[in-house]
């Protein structure tokens, strides 16, 4: 046994490690307590700075110490010359680099570096951009670094085209760089904005003025650049069809332009002496400067949203004083002014008419897709063919299937409806974990198609029976609908947005799984409701129907609530206006 090295047992090694950890912990706690004592005593000196540096070097995520460190630095600023302050903060940047080596995703370190850079008398932004380049070369999805880079770009005024070239380099070296694709989507609208007066040529910045900063906001990309982006992203997803980064960027390219902010519809009812106004987006009418002028006279009215849940809503209503427009023999002219957006819409209530409205059709507004030029249509058709070719090679690729659906929606939503439904069915099979998402998206597209068909037919009847709907949307577009059929779907509720159907008279929603009627709130024209074979189980679920003054017919057959004892008399007491009750 002589001459052999004695090996320590595992238990001995663990015990020594434990003792070493305890020793380090005691030193750490003692230093922490000393720092806290100094801060409580208001000490702001170099010794305190050194103590915080010792602890942050090993644990850069101690936010309180960073706060104390900033207090010390701010104090030292006031007692030192500018050159000394410059050296102090340059040393701080070097210290921060060592902290980032310990944890490259330290919230505290990146935040403190931004604070220091902003206070430097003579900042070296080129050096900071270089640091970002190095960090992103090690981890191209370090969102802390991306945030810091955007701050540096804003402070130093880096031109947009230079940053776009930076994304070119990163994407060229790694198509899977999602952060670069996202950053590119924020830069392109600034460098190549869509002209406000299409189809004018792509805007080119003047040589005499510097390119815009990447930190200002715009919306869409001009068509000329958009077509180039299609080619770039196609190279990416053909290289690796299963990588989601390029597919997400492609989906952004196919996105719809934001709708113009406007009053999309004004409806007036002589019988209820009520005005309903629909907007292109949810607004707060009480703070948006909405004014009603009747026959040239401003009216003092109280605007309210269609449901108490909504402070912002696309549809707002108001009641006029009794007798204002009830006289059937007179004509009235209304104007709704949206002073916040300097726009208005007129509506005339003619003699003998009980109601009137003024609106743009959904087809005119291009609600559900952007208007396409001949060139863009040709390119998208080519893109669709390419994706179909890829699908033949990768028939189970969910990204390709979803992109084909989006391309079909952009080109011709009604013409491709059958193919779209088929692709959604395939998506649910190949990506079953997200089948509910695909069901909701398919429901959304089917509702959009039905709205378009209703507009072309110029009717106020909306039928979506037996469409496998899982959710409802775009209900603000159904303000004028009088009859809606939602039977034989998979709906679980009538959401509060359903209250936007202010002209609804007949609702059919049989054979769903509805157990919530939140949306049946104050529908002033609603007369008939059929809810056969749903999941309404409590009398309280029907409470909101009491707010519908004209309701006379209610069919609840096949619902659990009908099994409650004395339900007939309970319902008669709850809904005295209902004369035709089927249970």
From TrEMBL:
Reactions it catalyzes: geranylgeranyl diphosphate + L-cysteinyl-[protein] = S-geranylgeranyl-L-cysteinyl-[protein] + diphosphate
PANTHER family for the chain: GERANYLGERANYL TRANSFERASE TYPE-2 SUBUNIT ALPHA (PTHR11129:SF2), PROTEIN FARNESYLTRANSFERASE ALPHA SUBUNIT/RAB GERANYLGERANYL TRANSFERASE ALPHA SUBUNIT (PTHR11129)
Name of the molecule in the record: Geranylgeranyl transferase type-2 subunit alpha
EC number: 2.5.1.60
Function: Catalyzes the transfer of a geranyl-geranyl moiety from geranyl-geranyl pyrophosphate to cysteines occuring in specific C-terminal amino acid sequences. Catalyzes the transfer of a geranylgeranyl moiety from geranylgeranyl diphosphate to both cysteines of Rab proteins with the C-terminal sequence -XXCC, -XCXC and -CCXX, such as RAB1A, RAB3A, RAB5A and RAB7A.
Region of interest called Disordered, as start-end residue ranges on this chain: 194-220
Keyword annotations of the record: Leucine-rich repeat, Phosphoprotein, Prenyltransferase, Repeat, Transferase
Single GO BP term: prenylation
Domain (Rab geranylgeranyltransferase alpha subunit insert-domain): residue spans on this chain: 263-362
PROSITE patterns named among the record's database cross-references: LRR (PS51450), PFTA (PS51147)
Family affiliation: Belongs to the protein prenyltransferase subunit alpha family.
Any one GO MF annotation of this record: Rab geranylgeranyltransferase activity
InterPro entries from the UniProt entry: Leu-rich_rpt, Leu-rich_rpt_4, LRR_dom_sf, Prenyl_trans_a, RabGGT_asu_insert-dom_sf, RabGGT_asu_insert-domain
GO cellular component: Rab-protein geranylgeranyltransferase complex
